[in-house]
TrEMBL record:
Ranges in a coiled coil: none
Name the UniProt record assigns to this protein: Tryptophan synthase beta chain-like PALP domain-containing protein
Tryptophan synthase beta chain-like PALP domain mapped to chain residues: 11-308
Species for this entry: Geothrix limicola
Cofactor: pyridoxal 5'-phosphate
Keywords attached to this entry: Pyridoxal phosphate
Pfam families: PALP
Length: 338
């Protein structure tokens, strides 16, 4: 048995997450499917990686100085990753979150001592107080602060190019046919996708975003796509953003809230893997890909990423009453056998 040596601090426990083979959810298909469990990072999401990478890069070149305040907008996960950095390294942190953020994430941010600024999601994107506009303004108005800007800073993608991508390549021993992942900032799909394609250009990279996001319509050639509301957290955007690297992507799929949430619940019931809503979206997309593959001389090896955990959504996605009130409940949830 190989045991990991003690980590010098909790920061060293970021990354090196397990890659697990999926079984029941793909048993009817001629594929081998694998998922990287990013919710096993210390703060429970893939965003720990980019938080560490962006903060340490800014420290190295003087953009961030001791005692500064960090300001960022986040669906909650980057906020938690940055909270870890702020606590470990002695910075203050203010985060801007959408008012659709799950109660569990909000409570965890408050437990970590983060200053939280909630934004009304019904404001139009061009409104000065909208989710995307308010953070740069706060950053300009606050002295001695650093705005990592995960939506505009390619160090986000570089964190996945340097970490998640090589880990997946090593764990799969270089045998991958398709990489599927959700696109929020696009950091994961861009960083991992680029790394894997450099290693083996035959690998197909498939992104998924929610119906209501502008990424997929743009990818498929629509001019000035209109954004719409959706509930799944962490995926898609109402704007095209610099971190979304469309040139790395071979195809984009769009998932509904209903599909994302139902597949998150299936993931828990059928695999015992506690993924959140965007993990459900990733599983849905993986199954779409698996069902529409052309003929191959071996079972296709498909890899995806489960960005965060179900524990963040117990009062929403995993609560029948919450789903029913929003018309999102799918009745035929399989027995877990537990
Ligand atoms: N899922 C969740 C829950 C997230 O918080 C994020 C990050 N926004 C993503 C998926 C998407 O990851 P990325 O930003 O790297 O595209």
């Amino acid at each position: 048995m190989h045991y990991r040596k003690p980590c010098g601090s909790v920061l060293e426990a970021i990354g090196n997450t397990p890659l697990v083979r999926l079984r029941r959810v793909v048993e009817h298909l001629p594929v081998e499917a694998f998922a990287k469990l990013e919710f096993m990072n210390p703060m429970g999401s893939s965003k720990d990686r980019i938080s560490r990478y962006m903060i340490e890069a800014a420290e190295r070149d003087g953009r961030l100085k001791p005692g500064d305040m960090i300001i960022e907008n986040s669906s909650g996960n980057t906020a938690m990753g940055l909270a870890l950095m702020a606590i470990q390294k002695g910075y203050k942190l203010k985060v801007v979150v959408r008012d659709t953020i799950s109660q569990e994430k909000l409570n965890q941010l408050l437990a970590l001592g983060v200053l939280v600024h909630k934004v009304d999601t019904s404001l139009p994107p061009e409104h000065p107080d909208s989710y995307n506009n308010i953070t740069p303004r706060l950053a300009r108005e606050t002295p001695n602060c650093y705005f990592p800007d995960q939506h505009g800073n390619r160090e986000n993608n570089a964190a996945h190019y340097a970490g998640t991508g090589p880990e997946i390549w090593e764990q799969m021993e270089g045998r991958i046919d398709v990489f599927v992942a959700g696109a929020g900032t696009g950091g994961t799909i861009g960083g991992v996708g680029r790394y894997l394609k450099e290693k083996d250009p035959r690998i197909k990279v498939i992104a998924v975003d929610p119906v209501g996001s502008v990424f997929s319509p743009h990818f498929h050639g629509e001019k000035n796509p209109k954004a719409g509301p959706y509930r799944v957290e962490g995926l898609g955007d109402e704007f095209l953003i610099p971190t979304m690297e469309f040139d790395v992507v071979d195809d984009m799929l769009q998932v509904t809230d209903r599909q994302a949430f139902h597949y998150a619940r299936r993931l828990v019931r059928e695999e015992g893997i506690l993924g959140g809503g965007s993990s459900g979206a990733a599983l849905w997309a993986l199954l779409q890909v698996a069902e529409h593959l052309g003929p191959m001389d071996h079972p296709a090896r498909i890899v995806t990423v489960f960005p965060d955990g179900a524990g963040r959504y117990l009062s929403s996605i995993f609560n029948d009453a919450w789903l029913e009130e929003r018309g999102l409940l799918v009745e035929d949830l399989p027995e877990s056998g537990a």
